[in-house]
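Render this sequence as a predicted structure.
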Amino acid sequence: MEPRIYLIVNVDADPDPVDTPADNDAVLEKYKIIQQLINERCDGKAVISVHSSPLYRERFIQSPFVDFWKEWTSGGGDLVLHMEEDFYALPENRRASSTGFENLEIVEQAMKETVSALSSEGLACRAYRGGSNSMTPEIAEVLTELGISVDLSCAPGLIWKERAVNWASAPLSGYFMSAQAPTRAVDPGGQGPLLEIPLGWDGINDGDSAPRKPNHHYLANESSTYEDLCRVWNIILERADNSGNHQAVSLLSHTHTAKTARFHSQLDAFLRFVTTNRGIPASLTEIRTLISDATESA
């Protein structure tokens, strides 16, 4: 059977700009623009982040956003807990070298309160993504305790150690994370509580040092061009054909560009390209089942 590429479309719904974001109606307008596109191109199968940060702890777990999350999930989508402790820190605490996770107790409490608030509204939060793509074994342990089973923090090749980002040797396709080291998979054929879906990457680093943030070598809409996105996708296809294995990767896009013609049309065109070139948009439930079945048969 020809290998397929399963794609998690990861919609980052961080408020923009950082300090004085638009009012709720303006933010929701962008959310709905992206929702319409996801419905058209992916049959509603995509994840969207519920933002939590020192600046905005409760905004996105209250009305009117809770109503939108219900719309999103009823249409086949999923929710991602997205902790932005760094860029959205309080002004007096914002530092270039800070991850925002220095006080794990505060972060853990915020995570629990966010997940609990969503649960009280009948909403499940099954995935997580760390701010700046950060991840630590301690955070992974908290996620397991919260019942979160999928992580989308991995961007292979990224290194920003000051912000707890080090994906230098991470696998390029979905894997069950080792509890001791986020960049390592559990033993071949084994499974774990936390499934990692890495950002799609072509395996190329420009220059002598690894990048800190996703660039045109990744499936990252705002950091790339249509041509580069398609090029990266074709490399992932080639990787699948050479290995004979299905691939599972994610694509990152942001709601703050929903009304920016270039990026919105680019996302639309790329999703059309993906779905006509062996790409299968998947829900979190589907992706976990697919990779579980694959590891069992390995």
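Summary. The radius of gyration is 18 Å. The mean pLDDT is 91.
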